[in-house]
Design goal:
Blueprint lengths: L7 E4 L5 H12 L3 E6 L2 H12 L8 E5 L5 H15 L4 E4 L15 H11 L1 H17 L2 E6 L12 H24 L3 E8 L2 E2 L2 H11 L6 H14 L2 E2 H13 L4 E4 L1 H12 L4 H13 L10
Parallel strand pairs: 1-2, 1-4, 2-3, 4-5, 5-6, 6-9, 7-8
Helix pairs in contact: 1-2, 1-9, 3-5, 4-6
């Protein structure tokens, strides 16, 4: 076991959901924090919650950040390292919902946005902080994939491509670090249905893009919020940080993620048929409103 106490931990997408609760859980366990998000108001709320635990202000560094902006992430990494003098852990958590349309109907902007945040955001954060993690002598990269980094689903091609990409990138990174003998571990997180605002955010994003939002779309979002996104985000954060402290290379969050992992391993040929039947049972169609996580 390796405690996070006293470590400097970076959390992206910390303005809400799992990211906010990761920051809170890390603070509870005695870590020093660098938190970021594209939403300044949400980020301020997270900082307020962390400080409410009695954490001193100099133990928390907060900054707005768009993880899809590579120069901004590189500058952010340098700023955090200069502020604390060392960086031990990076939780590449920032992400956006994807999906809702087939490959035929998806436009390029959907793919570009989802991949820019969910895949390249992880790559940017890893590459920018990795030299600092190596220099710390006790580094840890924690990359958040998804249940959809294990199992693909119809109408989630952009999201699945990104989350499978996170998994492949992270596993390749782990191999490289082992070969080089660098003192950095890698954990890949696969959350199932966690109670966050991701489904609602997907619907809001569609409206901002001027896309038609139907009553069926709204009903699907309600189903996600009421039936599928069940695990409280604070519980998910405890599982993730506990897995990091235990040095687990794969952290499955929730019974649904564990069940899907087992299904894909046991029935790799047949699980796509199961996924389609499940989509039809839940939504009456193969089209979903948003990714599970």
């Amino acid at each position: 076991m390796s405690s996070v106490r006293g470590k400097v931990a970076v959390v992206t997408g910390a303005g809400s959901g799992i990211g906010r609760q990761l920051a809170v859980e890390l603070a509870r366990r005695g870590a020093r924090l660098a938190v970021s998000d594209v939403d300044p108001a949400g980020l301020a709320g997270t900082v307020s919650q962390v400080l409410g635990l009695g954490v001193s202000g100099d133990a928390v560094h907060a900054a707005p950040l768009d993880v899809s902006d590579r120069p901004a992430v590189e500058a952010y990494a340098a700023t955090v390292a200069a502020h604390f003098g060392v960086v031990h852990q990076v939780y590449n958590n920032a992400g956006v919902a994807g999906g809702g349309r087939s490959v035929l109907d998806n436009d390029w902007a959907d793919y570009e946005r989802t991949l820019a945040v969910n895949l390249f955001g992880v790559i940017h954060g890893t590459k920018a902080f990795l030299p600092h993690l190596i220099a710390s002598g006790d580094g840890h990269v924690v990359n958040v994939s998804s249940l959809n980094g294990i199992m693909a689903q119809p109408s989630l091609s952009d999201y699945c491509a990104a989350k499978f990409g996170v998994r492949g990138f992270s596993e390749a990174l782990r191999g490289e670090l082992l070969v080089a003998g660098h003192p950095v571990r890698v954990s890949i997180v696969h959350p199932g249905g966690v109670r966050t605002n991701i489904a609602t955010a997907a619907l809001d994003q569609a409206r901002r893009q001027g896309l038609a939002v139907t009553a069926r779309d709204e009903a699907r979002t309600r189903l996600y919020n009421e039936k599928l996104l069940k695990m409280p985000a604070d519980r998910a954060a405890r599982i993730i940080v506990g897995g990091v402290e235990a040095g687990r290379p794969r952290i499955l969050v929730g019974g649904d993620a564990k069940a899907v992992d087992l299904l894909v391993r046991l029935l790799p040929r047949w699980y796509p048929h199961f996924a389609v039947r499940l989509e039809k049972k839940l939504f009456g169609t193969g089209v979903t409103a948003a990714a599970v996580r």
